[in-house]
Every structure is written in C-alpha cells, then in structure tokens.
Amino acid sequence: MATREEILDIHTMCACSHTRMAARAVTRFYDDALRPSGLKGTQFVLLAAIEADEAGSITDLADRIEIERTTLVRNLQLLRKEGLVAPEKGANGRRKPTLTEKGRGALDAALPLWRIAQGEIENRLGYGSWQVTRRRLGELRKAVG
C-alpha cells in the first residue's frame, strides 16, 4: 500500500498533473483574451495552422499540430458548421481543410487580440524565460512521444 508521502508526491511531482494544470491555465488565459473575437484559443490556433497551408491533408494537419486525427475531425466539423472552414481537394487528391472568407475574417479579427495575449505571456515570464520554456516544452513532447 502506498504511503501518504508517496500519494502527496503524485500531486507535487507528477509531470502529467503539472502539465495539465499549466495547459488549462494557459487555455483559459487565451480563451479570455480572444473572447471578443468569438474564437477560443484552440480554434484560433487551428485556423492559423490551416491558413499556414503546410498540410496536404487532414492527417498531415493532425501530425503537424500533434493532435489525434479523430479529435481534429471533430474540431473541423464544428468550424465547418460555423462556416469558418471548408474541405478542399489537396494536391495529392486527399481532402484538406481550408479557411472560408468568414474564417479568414475571424482569424484576422482575433490576431490583434492574440498578439496582446502573447505579449502579456512573454512580459509576465520575461522573453528569455518564455523562449526557454517553449524549448523545454518541445523537449518534453519529444521525450514522451
């Protein structure tokens, strides 16, 4: 049977717990900042990834943003219902999402709000500390991926 100290260590030391708490806090921060645009942080990031047009298919996009394909498909369906994305045939013949005119407008409207939020994160942490944090988060993803 686990000791009380071992159980308490789960809360204080668990990488899963700490990264999830941080992710929820950051998500709330960006959701609040982007609220005037009508987009959530996750939607904004997804629209930006689509607009970057580096993915040739839904699977490529899922790999690029490191999200389960089924989760991505559900998110794309919601954005499609809102008229923000539409499917298009990619160069390889597979379907890929593209932004509609309304989607580009939503992204453009949210971009200044995102810049303010991103600047606030960088100011609160310090730009150098944010760069280290970003790099370390990438290292963490690679270590467990």
UniProtKB/TrEMBL annotation:
Q: Does the keyword Isomerase apply?
A: no
Residue ranges the record marks as coiled coil: none
Q: Which SUPFAM superfamilies match?
A: Winged helix' DNA-binding domain
Cross-referenced InterPro entries? HTH_MarR-typ, WH-like_DNA-bd_sf, WH_DNA-bd_sf
For this UniProt record, give its keywords in alphabetical order, as a comma-separated list.
DNA-binding, Transcription, Transcription regulation
Note whether Transcription regulation occurs among the keywords.
yes
Record domain HTH marR-type: where: 37-95
What name is this protein filed under? Answer: Transcriptional regulator
Q: Which GO terms describe its molecular function?
A: DNA binding; DNA-binding transcription factor activity
